[in-house]
Design brief:
By secondary structure, the chain is α+β, with helices and mostly antiparallel strands. It has a domain of 45 residues. The chain has 1 helix and 2 strands. It has a two-stranded antiparallel sheet with strand order 1-2. Strand 1 and strand 2 form a beta hairpin. The chain is flat and about 45 Å long. This is Peptidase M1 membrane alanine aminopeptidase domain-containing protein. InterPro entries: Aminopeptidase_N-like_N_sf (IPR042097), Peptidase_M1_pepN (IPR012779). GO terms for molecular function: zinc ion binding.
């Protein structure tokens, strides 16, 4: 592969800890969470294909945290 680059400019300033960029050949574990107001939220954890099976606990923890946050 050759070299690639991209230039991106965000017109809205934000703290750097709110922004992340990842590039690669990734796959995701997808799930949903239903809020107390019955809104369905899509959840997705991205990782290398061989690590997708290792994300089950992370998804469980994410959903538990979201549930706790709503209580």
């Amino acid at each position: 592969g050759g070299k690639h680059y991209a230039v991106w400019e965000d017109p809205f300033k934000k703290p750097s800890y709110l922004f992340a960029l990842v590039a690669g050949q990734l796959e995701s574990r997808d799930d949903t969470f239903v809020t107390c107001s019955d809104r369905k939220v899509s959840l997705r954890i991205w990782t290398r294909a061989e690590d997708v099976p290792k994300t089950a606990h992370a998804m469980y923890a994410l959903k538990a945290a979201m549930k706790w946050d709503e209580e």
